[in-house]
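Project outcomes to date are best conveyed with an example. Our students and postdoctoral researchers have been running inverse folding experiments weekly, and each run begins with a structure described purely in tokens. The record below, which covers 253 residues, was selected by the lab manager from last quarter's runs and is presented without edits.
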């Protein structure tokens, strides 16, 4: 059974159709990539799954639950986390504190307890311990107590992953994670994505333009154009699909 099942999703902004009957599914433990030209609707699909956008039609089922029936604030609690195209870290906070921000949905004392500081010290100690463990598993433990400001861009990308992992997701949405990285850093990023998939038992939905990385790490690729799916399959199947070659990868000379 698919962990994520997307069926006939339609999203319109006024007269603009951003998603037009999009359907695909992602099996547990897979890395699935959404690719396509700019404006194809890839990030719009991410925003539907993370409940930033409302769909006018269709269904999204996650781990047996109707995702579109849930309010946005519950998405993280049921096991969906995401990163964004642009880093949204807190430069003045330590690396550890940035990761702890991502663990807020795992807190057990609630808003009132936090305001009254009932049990908050015990809660903070627990979260610090868990987030330090995540940093160690991401090879960032040695940076835990230093500010995020001034760290190399590739390291900040891994920090953003660590923050997303702090909410203990089952599904991780990565929105153009290679954006702004050098070729060498992109190669390292591909290894990191496979590592966190294995290390944290994740399913990953990826939007990315770096085709070499997509082809090397994905189990399944969904190709989009003008809000519609034009192809789907393994990297080899997509690479050789004439429709994909014409619409996105480039017509052979």
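After processing, the design step wrote out the following sequence:
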């Amino acid at each position: 059974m698919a962990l994520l099942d997307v069926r006939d999703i339609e999203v319109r902004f006024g007269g603009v159709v951003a998603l037009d009957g999009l359907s695909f599914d992602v099996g547990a433990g897979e890395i699935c990539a959404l690719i396509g030209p700019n404006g194809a609707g890839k990030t719009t699909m991410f925003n539907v799954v993370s409940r930033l956008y409302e769909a006018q039609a269709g269904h999204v089922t996650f781990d047996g639950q109707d995702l579109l029936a849930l309010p946005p604030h519950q998405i993280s609690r049921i096991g969906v986390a995401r990163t964004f195209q642009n880093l949204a870290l807190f430069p003045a906070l330590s690396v550890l504190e940035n990761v702890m921000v991502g663990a807020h949905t795992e807190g057990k004392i609630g808003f009132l307890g936090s305001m009254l500081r009932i049990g908050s010290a015990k809660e903070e100690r627990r979260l610090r311990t868990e987030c330090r463990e995540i940093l160690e598993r991401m090879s960032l433990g040695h940076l835990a107590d230093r500010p995020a400001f001034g760290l190399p861009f590739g390291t900040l990308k891994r920090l953003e992953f660590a923050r997303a992992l702090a909410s203990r997701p089952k599904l991780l949405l990565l929105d153009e994670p290679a954006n702004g990285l050098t070729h060498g850093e992109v190669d390292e990023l591909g290894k990191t994505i496979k590592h966190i998939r294995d290390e944290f038992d994740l399913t990953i939905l990826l939007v990315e333009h770096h085709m070499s990385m997509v082809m090397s790490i994905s189990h399944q690729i969904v190709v989009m154009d003008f809000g519609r799916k034009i192809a789907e399959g393994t990297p080899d199947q997509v690479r050789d699909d004439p429709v994909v070659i014409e619409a996105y990868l480039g017509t052979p000379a």
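The first strand starts at residue 2 and ends at 13. The mean pLDDT is 88. The training component of this project remains on track.
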